[in-house]
């Protein structure tokens, strides 16, 4: 059984990265259980998205690689 885990995504230059990032998140929507996003009120172009996901490590690595291929995107994963 796949384990529940957390992924954080830091988005710089939101206006440039957001559309492609959203496509990737939609593509992997079947593993995303919950999503919470905030923008940095001090920096208009920066944001943070936290995902609760349930998937095997192969799918997690795939989404992280796709996200990090975009300019201004950093992804981190934590599994308990």
Structural commentary:
This is Iron-only hydrogenase system regulator. It holds the Pfam family TM1266-like. InterPro entries: Acetolactate_synth/TF_NikR_C, ACT-like_dom_sf, FeFe-hyd_TM1266. It is a single chain. The chain has a single domain (3-79), classed as 2-Layer Sandwich (Alpha-Beta Plaits), CATH 3.30.70.1150. A hairpin with a 6-residue loop joins β2 (32-39) and β3 (46-55). It is globular, with a radius of gyration of 12 Å. A four-stranded antiparallel beta sheet has the order 2-3-1-4, covered by helices on one side. It contains two helices and four strands, in the order βαββαβ. The longest helix has 14 residues, at 14-27. It is α+β, with helices and mostly antiparallel strands and 80 residues long. It has helices at residues 14-27, 57-68, and strands at residues 3-12, 32-39, 46-55, 73-79.
CATH architecture: 2-Layer Sandwich
Question: What best-fitting shape do the alpha-carbon axes yield?
Answer: globular
Helix-strand topology string: EHEEHE
User: What's the count of strands?
Assistant: 4
Structural class based on helices, strands and sheet pairing: alpha+beta
Overall mean pLDDT stands at 91
How many alpha or pi helices? 2
Strand order of the largest sheet: 2-3-1-4
CATH class: Alpha Beta
Number of domains as seen in the coordinates: 1
Annotated CATH topology = Alpha-Beta Plaits
Helix content: 25-40%
The Rg value, from CA coordinates, equals 12 Å
Give the strand content: 35-45%
Biggest pleated-sheet summary? 4 strands, antiparallel
Q: Kindly report how far apart the N and C termini lie.
A: 14 Å
The poorly predicted ranges are none
CATH homologous superfamily identity? ACT-like. Chain A, domain 2
Oligomer: single chain
């Amino acid at each position: 059984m796949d384990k529940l885990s957390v992924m954080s995504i830091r988005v710089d230059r939101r206006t440039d990265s957001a559309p492609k990032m959203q496509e990737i998140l939609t593509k992997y929507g079947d593993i995303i259980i919950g999503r919470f996003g905030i923008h940095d009120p001090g920096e208009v172009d920066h944001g943070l998205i936290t995902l609760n996901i349930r998937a095997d490590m192969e799918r997690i690595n795939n989404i992280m690689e796709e996200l990090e291929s975009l300019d201004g995107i950093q992804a981190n994963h934590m599994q308990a």
